[in-house]
Amino acid sequence: MLAEILPKLAAMEFEGQKPFYPRPSSAGPDRCIRQMVYHGLNTPPKPLPGRAILIFDDSSWHEELTADWVRKSSFTLHSEQMEVDCHEPMRKGHIDGIITDAMSTDRLWEHKAINHFTFNNFWNGNEFPEDYFTQCAVYTEGLQKDNPDLKDGLLLIKNKNTAQYMEFSLHYDRDTDTLSINKKIHSTGEVLGLEELRVNIVQDACDKFDKVLDYIKRQTLPKRQYDIDHWRCDYCQYNQTCWDGYEKEFAELKTDTMLPNEIADMVRYKKETSAHRLEMQKEEKELTEKIKQIMKDAGVREGRTPEYICKLSLRKSQTLDKHIIPQKIIDEATQISYYEKLDIRKIKEEKNGKRK
Predict the structure, then answer these.
(1) Residues 6 or more apart from 248 whose CB is under 8 A from it?
(2) SS3 breakdown of the chain: % helix, strand, coil, rounded to 5?
(3) Exposure letters 110-146 (e unless 16+ CB within 10 A, then b)
(4) Which of 44, 127, 264, 329 lies 20 to 30 Å from 143 when distance is taken between CA atoms?
(5) Distance CA 209, CA 21 (A)
């Protein structure tokens, strides 16, 4: 009963989006400008499902739980949800808090709770939480108006699935508008030194909002920031509105056009890497079949070499036989999605010298 009721209750209780205004949490480079323009133009968004609202609520409680543990440490946590005057055109923001260590050094404390996949991406160095960095820089710049000595920050990120933490050590210089990311620390104790700089980080955020406000004023839309198959578009409440009519828009793009010279080397290199990849995939498949056959000929399901363990496992896959399913049900269950595919082919010389 409750499993079904609670998400529906969350959807019913949700008050909807607040009016748009430039805010520090939206200031980073990853937040879609077009999405904010739709918001500013009061475009009706797709209603959030109840489960999404529960996820947002979870994140708030994770912050409370973490704050409770911080209070039990040697750090003093204070100024929670304190209002901060941010750089125009952003309005006031609310920080998660300030922590003070035993040496009486104050640091901005910003807490985030995220999923396991994103957490690992941030830790392994494949991605950086750019929007969180920008938010911290904007807050620190605002705090320095009253406390010029507060230049350091600690971005603490919690893995909601495993309760692991990582933190980024930050330093913001207001004179150069530069955020330095010095190191990141995992709850396992692993420390990785970083030499990451984000120059003009607050000014870039302000410029971004200036563009958004200008688009809203002129009631026009910027170009899409992401491709049609990007995960950010999948989760966006304006997805259907944004991509409506894209088939016609795509069909109107120019053809038979000479591309910029810089693309030529990129295309040539892509074709070379594709050829190598296909060769390696073919070789890998052949080796796999040979190893499997040798093991089965020897009556072995699992064995070892001096360096590796080889194990055959029987996997089960399931498919639907569409021939025994009524077409009406197939049509109702079919979802259409789009993605853009790049095809590259060699230009052939014709006998008369023309290319095709």
Answers:
(1) none
(2) 40, 20, 40
(3) bbbbbeeeebeebbeeeebbebbbbbbbbbbbbbeee
(4) 127
(5) 9
H-run or E-run covering 98: strand 97-100
Continuous segment of H or E residues that includes residue 182: strand 178-186
Q: How confident is the model over 171-228, as pLDDT tens digits?
A: 999 999 999 999 999 999 999 999 999 999 999 999 999 999 999 999 999 999 999 9
Give the sign of the dihedral formed by CA 316, CA 321, CA 326, CA 330.
positive
Does pLDDT of 353 surpass 70? no
Q: How many CB atoms are located within 10 Å of the residue 205 CB? A: 27
The dihedral sign for the CA sequence 222, 224, 225, 231: positive
Burial class (CB in 10 A: 0-12, 13-18, 19+), 198: buried
At residue 267, the 3 state secondary structure works out as helix
As given in the structure block, the two tokens for residue 158 are 């919690």
CA distance 306 to 309: 9
